[in-house]
């Protein structure tokens, strides 16, 4: 109830200051988060973070995640899609899954509580689990077999009846405390699928649309300690919250388009969501997008940080957030091929 | 009408037999294959076979690369052939970068330890000697990706479903030999036929077409030849194993082992037939492997679909050189399991 009053209040503020939106195109107006007058969180970006060997480059910084030792994993689009590991100081350690059958077009990487590394590939339509040694231990979904005929591409759009074990451009993966696996699937199927820890189908939710429980691009996802699932429903510009059985619980729709969400670990969990500068490189969007919100799990906004731009500490299309430590955030960016480590200084610390 | 009656009888008998098939206890070690170099990973483990020394050969899908050439679209790479010692330790790669490795389907080892790969993307069967040197090809890799709606053979040649009278394949699946060294190739996805060639690769005959009648096929996904030269064809889409004599004359069929994806006949005085009712890649239904006499009598079954040890993710090839020690190559689980049976 308290939150609803806040939302109404921010709408009133928006209407009371018409000057604010005067020069914005309709698209930019729509892209601006409803929440206004959100306090800024002080932060800085760590310079010269990742040290790459000669002739190893990051492409689009599509995924970033850390493990329990602080090692940083970056899943990037390059000549081939590649997965790199760095230590906590940013020193390059190794490449994982070089030449892998399931590495086609990177989308996200996450590290589970046992330090297994999970890559979500929207080109191969697969979720691939590596152990901490970098060997494949489980796969979900299946890479489509090559077509004989270039003149007959598969029909566009979602399958009429998406299979239990096949994805259509999946976007993210998460786990509850029991090890059950959640996959956001994704560009084609507009659903979230739940599997048990051994990869056996349990249930799914969602279809394309804007009603509660429907999705218009479930692009990012995080699971809290109680098993609640937070889905960044990007084109509907809202975060949808489900319980562990994928029953709809709540909707947070004041933080713009959630390109990347993350739930931090520890006894007090926070929810981060990035209203990223869109990948269309439309400059009119740059003044109204790019910020990242820090929230309580119930959707209460605590603060925001960042803005669109190419300088250190600015964000160029944040595509994934790692928030294992809620005061040391990693972000990977699309337009500017990099990963940043953001040190937050929230008030009272 | 007669055909419908036969089908009904199969279903009825299959249903009855299914309930009575004893379970065979078995063990598996996962992961079995080990010590791969950091830059070599199994993808879909489409093919697995052993040679007489017990070395294990895995033909796996790794992902192709495509290039545009004028108006044509060329693809390269996509499969690797790896050799492991009998304990599962990585030994070496064979055929790295060869022109005919596109989309791994099966690997088989003949009685002289030559290694044969069947590639469903390149439409080529390649014979390597035991040390991995190239000896012979059957079929030819398409110069570029075929246009849609092409005919039965490579590049659209031949009659759809039957192909041409020669080694011109369109998505072949398997290879086998009789005691005289004659070669049998199942040419499966676009054509639906078996091609017989002599041991030097000279075309002898072809039989089969797409359909469900006797001697017809709907995806002949796997073949095996027994010591008498009879040819067993896993007719996947028709849910049956068809048996032919050495000249391709229909003899009999077995219809109560689900959808046979992979079959294998063990060597030795008493030969057994194994057949996997593999789960389709988009499901976790079925998955059990049957052990049979050559006359089709089911002796037992083992396994089920899943991702754990002793579970199967779309078995695509079985090796049964030793009848109680099987190797199963899985598509969706990207692994090979060594299965020790205790019948």
List keywords for this structure.
heterodimer, A: about 350 residues, mainly beta, four-stranded antiparallel β-sheet, globular, B: about 350 residues, 1 helix, about 45% strand
Write the layout of secondary structure elements.
The complex is a heterodimer of chains A (349) and B (343).
Chain A: H1 2-16, H2 26-31, E1 42-45, E2 60-66, E3 72-77, E4 82-86, E5 92-96, E6 106-111, E7 117-121, E8 126-130, E9 136-141, E10 170-175, E11 181-185, E12 191-195, E13 201-205, E14 218-223, E15 229-233, E16 238-242, E17 248-252, E18 258-263, E19 270-275, E20 292-296, E21 301-305, E22 318-325, E23 328-333, E24 339-345
Antiparallel strand pairs in A: 1-24, 2-3, 3-4, 4-5, 6-7, 7-8, 8-9, 10-11, 11-12, 12-13, 14-15, 15-16, 16-17, 18-19, 19-20, 20-21, 22-23, 23-24
Chain B: H1 2-20, E1 25-29, E2 47-50, E3 56-61, E4 65-69, E5 72-76, E6 79-84, E7 90-94, E8 104-109, E9 115-119, E10 124-128, E11 134-138, E12 172-177, E13 183-187, E14 193-197, E15 203-207, E16 220-225, E17 231-235, E18 240-244, E19 250-254, E20 260-265, E21 272-277, E22 289-293, E23 298-302, E24 304-305, E25 311-312, E26 315-322, E27 325-330, E28 335-342
Parallel strand pairs in B: 24-25
Antiparallel strand pairs in B: 1-28, 2-3, 3-6, 4-5, 6-7, 8-9, 9-10, 10-11, 12-13, 13-14, 14-15, 16-17, 17-18, 18-19, 20-21, 21-22, 22-23, 26-27, 27-28
